[in-house]
Design goal:
The complex is a heterodimer of chains A (about 110) and B (about 110). Helix content of chain A is about 0%, strand content about 55%. Chain A contains no helices and eleven strands. In chain A, the strands form two sheets. In chain A, strands 2, 4, 5, 9, 10 and 11 form a six-stranded mixed β-sheet that branches. In chain A, strands 1-3-8-7-6 form a five-stranded antiparallel β-sheet, with no helix packed on it. In chain A, a hairpin with a 2-residue loop joins strand 6 (about 55-60) and strand 7. Chain B is mainly beta and about 110 residues long. Chain B is built from no helices and eleven strands. Chain B has strands at about 5, 10-15, 20-25, 30-35, 45-50, 55, 65-70, 75-80, 90-95, 105, 110-114. In chain B, strands 2, 4, 5, 6, 9, 10 and 11 form a seven-stranded mixed β-sheet that branches. A four-stranded antiparallel β-sheet of chain B has the order 1-3-8-7, with no helix packed on it. In chain B, strand 9 and strand 10 (about 105) form a beta hairpin. The mean pLDDT of chain B is about 95. The chains are: A mainly beta (about 110), B mainly beta (about 110). At the A-B interface, strand 4, strand 5, strand 9 and strand 10 of A face strand 4, strand 5, strand 9 and strand 10 of B.
Chain lengths: ~110, ~110
């Protein structure tokens, strides 16, 4: 079953604009991770935020986490055509389920040059 | 390149045939995972190994599916008597032996059952 739900399902922007994707989840988590998938390829890890963190930055990426609302957002600033990909949030419930990363359906981001 | 590798990258088979996929994880990673991804969906967990032990299997993994990881190194995923519903991308990932670890994914094997 999919734990996370990304919103929007698809997003189209112009190069240089910012892109924001949201993720909601249902159960308590140990951490939340964002991954990128280029068309037809494997997933690449972008950033991990732990349940006791509220915000994290990595390069042009900014992730926020609100555990009270069970939601996270991924902001990509100054987007580039190469950022075109599907973006997935994935939750790690920790504890006895720390082997299982549960993915959402993803947001398809298209950055137009 | 020391990333996760998968073989083959593409497989087309007829319904009823058996197929086997291979995954070679990052060498120092004790944990290995199999996921299945269908079009427009996120990856769904199938099973995971810690070293050579298969510790968890999803209900998605019917008895036609079997996975092994002999000697805690590479892993194989076999599907017997394939069905059209098995058509999907099969992704392998590996990680360090810690909870909450980042998963490193291979490029996937795309299976098409005709």
């Amino acid at each position: 079953s999919q734990q996370g739900e990304e919103d929007p399902q698809a997003l189209s922007i112009q190069e240089g604009e910012n892109a924001t994707m949201n993720c909601s989840y249902k159960t308590s988590i140990n951490n939340l991770q964002w991954y990128r998938q280029n068309s037809g390829r494997g997933l690449v890890h972008l950033i991990l935020i732990r349940s006791n963190e509220r915000e994290k930055h990595s390069g042009r990426l900014r992730v926020t986490l609100d555990t009270s609302k069970k939601s996270s957002s991924l902001l990509i600033t100054a987007s580039r055509a190469a950022d075109t990909a599907s973006y997935f949030c994935a939750t790690d419930a920790g504890g006895g389920s720390n082997y299982k990363l549960t993915f959402g359906k993803g947001t398809l981001l298209t950055v137009n040059p | 390149d020391t990333g996760v590798s998968q073989d083959p990258r593409h497989k087309i088979t007829k319904r009823g045939q058996n197929v086997t996929f291979r995954c070679d994880p990052i060498s120092e990673h004790n944990r290995l995972y199999w996921y299945r991804q269908t079009l427009g969906q996120g990856p769904e967990f199938l099973t995971y190994f810690q070293n050579e032990a298969q510790l968890e299997k999803s209900r998605l993994l019917s008895d036609r599916f079997s996975a092994e990881r002999p000697k805690g190194s590479f892993s194989t995923l076999e599907i017997q008597r394939t069905e059209q519903g098995d058509s999907a991308m099969y992704l392998c990932a590996s990680s360090l032996d810690t909870g909450g670890a980042v998963r490193y994914f291979g490029p996937g094997t795309r299976l098409t059952v005709t």
